[in-house]
Design a protein that fits this description.
With 285 residues, the chain is of the alpha/beta class. The strands form two sheets. The chain has a six-stranded mixed sheet, with helices on both faces. Strands 2-1-4-5 form a four-stranded antiparallel sheet, covered by helices on one side. A hairpin with a 2-residue loop joins strand 4 and strand 5. The N and C termini lie far apart (43 Å). The chain binds adenosine-5'-diphosphate and magnesium ion. Magnesium ion binds next to helix 1.
């Protein structure tokens, strides 16, 4: 699996007073199995970007490749692509519509042409993978909590057995507990299924703990693209575009400024703790 954008530009309402250059010359490649965070201020182009990966949006200029094939070449099956590149929209619960959870999750696989039996099998596996208890399978999706609805929606995409899972702000509107549960579940899926995951978020704290690579969008441009520690080292520039590094980054810099030799690349609380103890001469040598 590989996903690639080459010089992709997207303009809403071209030639009108409402013209918006939502993507400007974006090039990037997502290799098999990578866990990528996409971050940026509201309006920076994140949602527009990810809808290019499964052909929901067509670039105004530039090319999108899936497994080295141009997805907009004549005869290319976008339907097949959409089952390989699964996209979970922001507030996906708005798209739950079947009478019960199991039927809802079966919708995608059935649409792929699988039999009722195969679709049910896929749906059960997917629901298990998102951690939804079996007693909810026959419930109406509308009776579930916010976090549970989100899980059902994610299962609906997983049931198509995608090679890439793209989630647009999957934790939006959830309380901290729901948020952590969903993120842990996504991280587990990435481990377990070895699929590539693109996680869109506007929270550095969320992203920092999980991903191996961060793409930073600003005003339609990709401004940073690298490992979290590398990206966070630009925390001053991130602030200038309305983002912030994880709080730990600030603490480590403040301590260093005050004479304690802390590790400025620490991201997690655990890394910070070890670094501070070591700087104080109390850690393992
Ligand atoms: P994000 O997901 O990072 O918040 P979007 O991709 O939704 O950003 O939006 C990028 C830019 O495109 C913004 O300026 C936004 O106002 C504009 N935009 C998004 N959707 C539309 C639309 N349907 N019509 C016109 N402009 C849009
Ligand atoms: Mg968005």
């Amino acid at each position: 699996m590989s996903l690639k954008l080459e010089h992709v530009t997207y303009t809403y309402n071209p030639g009108t007073a409402y013209e918006t250059h939502a993507l400007k010359d974006v090039s990037l490649e997502i290799p098999q199995g990578q866990f990528v965070g996409v971050i940026g201020h509201t309006g920076s182009g994140k949602s527009t970007l990810i809808q290019h990966f499964n052909g929901l949006m067509r670039p105004t200029s530039g090319t999108v490749f899936y497994n080295k094939e141009d997805i907009w070449q004549e005869g290319y099956s976008l339907k097949r692509l959409r089952s390989k590149v699964g996209l979970v929209f922001q507030y996906p619960e708005h798209q739950l519509f079947e009478a019960d959870v199991l039927s809802d999750v079966c919708f995608g696989p059935k649409n792929q042409g699988l039999s009722q039996e195969e679709a049910l099998e896929r749906a059960r596996t997917a629901l298990k993978q998102v951690g939804l208890k079996e007693k909810y399978y026959s419930a109406s999706p509308f009776e579930l909590s916010g976090g549970q609805k989100r899980r059902v929606a994610i299962a609906g995409v997983l049931a198509m057995e995608p090679e890439v899972l793209i989630l647009d702000e999957p934790t939006a509107g959830l309380d901290p507990k729901g948020r952590d549960e969903i993120l842990d579940q996504i991280a587990w899926l990435h481990e377990e299924r070895k699929i590539s995951v693109l996680l869109v978020s506007h929270s550095m704290e969320d992203i920092a703990r999980y991903v191996e690579r961060i793409l930073v969008m600003n005003q339609g441009e990709k401004v940073f693209d690298g490992a979290p520690k590398e990206v966070f080292s630009h925390y001053k520039e991130l602030e200038a575009i309305g983002l912030a590094a994880p709080q730990i980054t600030y603490i480590m810099h403040a301590l260093r400024k005050n004479g304690l030799w802390t590790d400025l690349t620490a991201i997690t609380v655990e890394e910070a703790k070890n670094s501070i103890l070591k700087a104080l001469g109390r850690g393992e040598k």
